[in-house]
């Protein structure tokens, strides 16, 4: 004799909201026109210059340049990640994350570590050390300081945003 099967399905409001909000992908074209957006693009372009100028040399023979490479590539990748998050407005879909604090910590750590890397880069450039790579290392040092100033600018804007959120 056939048995009767009853299947009951339920859906939570969380999954309904998640499927409704993930079906449309927002794109913020205006973000690149803001000063923080322009600074992020500058950080990406000049950060790429920093690590490609070093990567084209025999940097692996000198540990100081390995540190500069690590910082430059690490923050280059993370900056691209954050640019995508801001351009796609993903931060609006994940309200559980304190984005103003995350931005402040990211830009603050990038500023500090890039400043250390730029100083290490500049102090390691020595014509007698390797005259063949001297120009690339000197240029990477210059651009590392420029990228450092960009992260300092974004840290300032992140601090203003974080402070206005904590005062509310």
TrEMBL record:
Sequence intervals crossing the membrane: 35-54, 60-85, 97-117, 137-157
Assigned keywords, A-Z: Membrane, Transmembrane, Transmembrane helix
Cellular component GO terms held in the UniProt record: membrane
Residues in MARVEL domain copies: 31-163
Family annotation (InterPro entries): MAL, Marvel, MARVEL-CKLF_proteins
Listed GO biological process terms: myelination
Pfam families in the cross-refs: MARVEL
Subcellular location: Membrane
Membrane topology category: Multi-pass membrane protein
Listed GO MF terms: structural constituent of myelin sheath
Organism superkingdom: Eukaryota
Identification of the protein by name: CKLF8 protein
Organism: Upupa epops
